[in-house]
Specification:
By secondary structure, the chain is α+β, with helices and mostly antiparallel strands. It has one helix and five strands. A hairpin with a 6-residue loop joins strand 1 and strand 2.
Length: about 80
């Protein structure tokens, strides 16, 4: 991982239905998604937010095992 790369972790919550999106790139540190599309919505947000920097997105199951990994290269274009 390079120093300009950010890590997003999509982890299930224990106290609510849904998932958290945690990232060192977000100023407030955490987002929470719920509902049947929670995981895909969290991944979509991480991909959208990482347009300006390289990112790794890790998706965890309830037992804290990594079940998906996405590497996303920045694609932000300033006009």
């Amino acid at each position: 991982m390079t120093s300009s790369q950010h890590v997003y972790e999509v982890t299930p919550r224990k106290d609510h239905r849904g998932v958290d999106l945690i990232s060192d790139a977000l100023p407030f540190g955490r987002l929470w998604y719920e509902g049947p599309n929670a995981c895909s919505n969290a991944i979509g947000y991480a991909i959208h937010y990482s347009r300006a920097h390289d990112a790794v997105i890790r998706v965890y199951d309830a037992a804290s095992n990594v079940i998906e990994t996405h590497e996303h290269k920045s694609e932000f274009k300033e006009w």
